[in-house]
Amino acid sequence: MIKNKLLVLILSITFSCNSKHSKKEIAMEIVYPENEWLSGEIKYKTRLKYRVDSLRSKLEENYSLLIIKDGYVIYEMYNTPYLKDSLIHTNSVTKSVVSMLFGIIFKDSLVESENQFSLSYFPEFNIKDSAICKIKNKHFLSMSSGLDWKGGVDAIDVLAMSQSENWAKYVFERKIVNRPNENYLYNSGGTQVISSILHKQVSYDLEKFAADSLFAPLGIQNYQWEKTINGVPKAGWGLHLKMADMARLGYLMLRGGVWKDKQIIPAYWVNKSTTSQININDTWDYGYQFWLPKNSEFKSFMFRGYYPPSYKIIEVIPELDIVAVYVGDNKKFKEIIESHVKIIEDAIK
């Protein structure tokens, strides 16, 4: 067991308060807890001092941020209402967790399973539309099913699905507007189809399977996962987690699905789900329930959730060995994460 270590980061922040010569010093203590994330010596044992003139406005925003580097807490800051022990509604971060579970459940037949026709798991629906019959699991995973779906601000289909007796059936009853894999269209219902398929595959409740096969090995104990009236976990937005546990999920993906020398998620699936499967726009690509930002200094992938006004982000930056968890109301979350990461990287060179 690694003993507790202490790293003090002193952020010297210069800003104007009715005078351009006014300064304010903000000191933060970062504690390395008893750490089960990484074996080996802590790499950063010295005090780091650096000036941070650019973070004034960002530090005043209503957000919390946790950054893990090389398996250790290197930076953390928590603001109300997103506190260290808060159980946070992660919204669409849940989608990425469903993708992780897909990899665990179908670990011995992933290629076959991602290419399986989704409707084949639901003979009870008796849907004969030939176009809908061609939708595969990979199309729902990549938001390219071709089904019409009204989400967003109006969330017409999200609300209607939530009031239906069978959420997966509601999705399959939508109209086809594009051929599968032709266009990206964000569809929380498609993720619910995947959740329903996984629920059918396990010999008991999917949420219990997730607890035993994913959460428990990572040490995630305190969480909530909302369910439909049929007992299927709400795949689009139902998971509640602490920020540290969000970081654990990101760290598992960073390590190629390995935790304490155990392969929890197949490496094939980690790579596949975080590789571009479809283009969204000039800013984003999309994998299997993971967001892939473009035009960034460092290649990364994200678990990404949003419900007005707050964003829930887990960004994984493999080349820097960093996982950053952001929860807050500033839509410029990527810029905020990048600013802190750059400062940390510059400080430890």
Kindly describe this structure.
By secondary structure, the chain is α+β, with helices and mostly antiparallel strands. It has two domains: 5-83 and 339-347, no CATH class; 88-320, 3-Layer(aba) Sandwich (Beta-lactamase), CATH 3.40.710.10. 30% of the residues lie in helices and 22% in strands. It has twelve helices and 16 strands. Residues 1-59 have low confidence and may be disordered.
SSE blueprint and pairings:
Layout: E1 5-14, E2 23-32, E3 48-51, H1 56-59, E4 63-69, E5 72-77, E6 88-89, H2 93-105, H3 110-114, H4 130-133, H5 137-141, H6 156-162, H7 167-172, H8 188-201, H9 206-218, E7 224-225, E8 239-241, H10 243-254, E9 258-259, E10 262-263, H11 267-273, E11 278-279, E12 284-286, E13 291-293, E14 301-307, E15 310-317, E16 322-328, H12 333-347
Parallel strand pairs: 1-3
Antiparallel strand pairs: 1-2, 4-5, 4-16, 6-8, 7-8, 9-10, 11-12, 12-13, 14-15, 15-16
The CATH superfamily of the largest domain is known as: DD-peptidase/beta-lactamase superfamily
Q: What is the CATH class designation of the largest domain?
A: Alpha Beta
Strands side by side in the biggest sheet: 5-4-16-15-14
Query: What is the CATH third-level topology name of the largest domain?
Result: Beta-lactamase
**Ends distance:** 27 Å
How many discrete domains? 2
Strand content: 15-25%
Largest sheet: 5 strands, antiparallel
Order of helices and strands: EEEHEEEHHHHHHHHEEHEEHEEEEEEH
Which CATH architecture of the largest domain would you pick? 3-Layer(aba) Sandwich
Structural class category: alpha+beta
Number of helices: 12
Broad shape: globular
- Radius of gyration equals 21 Å
Overall strand count: 16
Spans of at least 5 consecutive residues whose pLDDT stays below 50 are 1-59
Mean pLDDT: 83
How helical, in percent, are the residues?
25-40%
